[in-house]
Design a protein that fits this description.
Elements (H helix, E strand, L loop, with lengths): L1 H7 L3 E3 L3 E3 L23 E2 H11 L6 H12 L11 E3 L2 E2 L8 H12 L2 H21 L1 E2 L4 E2 L2 E2 L2 H7 L13 E3 L7 E3 L1 E2 L1 H20 L3 H21 L1 E2 L4 E2 L1 E3 L4 E2 L17 H12 L46 H14 L1
Antiparallel strand pairs: 1-2, 3-4, 4-5, 6-7, 8-10, 9-10, 11-14, 12-13, 14-15
Length: 340
């Protein structure tokens, strides 16, 4: 109930969308210039809104609010098939964000068994999955990369707007007609979330009686997992790492390096290496074995900062360059739970 109460501060009513939970009330970035009332402006950010829906659904007393919010963000899907990074009545981003909608829907379905919600949203989420496969696959390894109309848009697609993982410029236009392109880097976090998404969609498809679709999704997820295991494990670092298309690892380690655990990609030995060398390391991610913060320095007291505390970009406080963020914590927790 406390989590729901916190999320309720962002619940608003809009006559176009019904009940929604935007990241912030109002229109601070000018996303909705045509609004007729100061009470109505909003912007929905993809994964933030998905997680707000999950938070609102955690207790049965509020599940309908969670359902409403999830429906609104998934139905914001573009004509191209993806849920946009940002959505307002008069504007949509031309890039996406992490595809966590299938995981959120699966969590809701496992809790309440409301099949109608699965049937309502499954095809939209399948479109999103197919869009990632078609538009965010980078050769020669044919793995997931971030994209958009420039390097900054591709950074925004990660959900980690200024993460030091993406410092520099390694973006290339891949569609001369639109000017859109891809980062020339296989992204371990996004690739792992896409693999997780397809596995979740397979379970949802089974629930909806679509066995053939589920079979395709499981095969797609298995292929992605095998590629992550084969190409993104860095023996030198003892953890999964982003890798440039040239073959060179980009050793800027964030909690996204734990995301392969979301769908069981890590072997026992690799999982132990990540936990001992990184997650439980007081100079890196600062998680204490008992969860009591004992011995942690003030600059890394809470644990799981958004970049390893030994990274040269790390300050005590700094957006996605040091702050502790809920999405990273939840995804890491889900990964650890899967491996347990």
């Amino acid at each position: 109930m406390a989590v729901q109460a916190g999320a309720m501060w962002n619940v608003v009513y809009n006559p176009l969308e019904s009940v929604i939970a935007p990241v912030i009330r109002g229109n601070p970035w000018g996303w909705d210039p045509a609004v007729l009332s100061d009470d109505w402006p909003y912007v929905l950010f993809d994964w933030d809104t998905h997680f707000a829906a999950l938070m609102l659904s955690l207790d049965a007393a509020g599940k309908e609010l969670g359902y409403s919010v999830l429906i609104q963000v998934v139905k914001a899907k573009s004509a191209e098939g993806f849920v946009p990074n940002g959505y307002a009545p008069t504007r949509k981003s031309t890039h996406s964000q992490p595809p966590v909608g299938s995981k959120v829907l699966l969590e809701m379905y496992r809790r309440y068994r409301d099949l109608w919600l699965v049937e309502l949203l499954l095809d939209d989420l399948l479109d999103w999955s197919g869009w990632f496969l078609e538009e965010r696959t980078l050769p020669p390894l044919n793995m997931t990369a971030l994209g958009g109309d420039d390097m900054q848009a591709a950074r925004y697609e990660s959900g980690l707007d200024d993460s030091p993982m993406y410092d520099g410029h390694f973006f290339a236009v891949t569609d001369n007609k639109t000017g859109y392109g891809l980062m020339q880097m296989y992204d371990v976090g996004m690739a792992s979330m896409v693999a997780m998404s397809d596995a979740c969609l397979a379970e949802l498809a089974d629930a909806a009686g679509r066995a053939d679709t589920a079979k395709v999704l499981r095969a797609r997820s298995a292929d992605a997992r095998a590629k992550i295991a084969a190409h993104l494990w860095d023996e030198q670092s003892g953890i999964f790492v982003n890798r440039l298309a040239t073959g060179r690892f980009r050793r800027r380690i964030t909690p996204t390096s734990f995301y392969p655990m979301l769908s069981g990609i890590a072997t026992v030995g690799r999982a132990e290496s990540m936990l001992r060398g990184w997650l439980l390391n007081a100079s890196r991610f600062c998680i204490t074995p008992k969860g009591d913060f004992a011995g942690n320095d003030d600059t890394c007291y809470w644990g799981l900062p958004s970049v390893s505390a030994d990274d040269p970009a790390f300050p005590p406080l700094g957006y996605w360059r040091g702050y502790v963020w809920g999405p990273m914590a939840l995804l890491t927790y889900w990964g650890l739970s899967h491996e347990a």
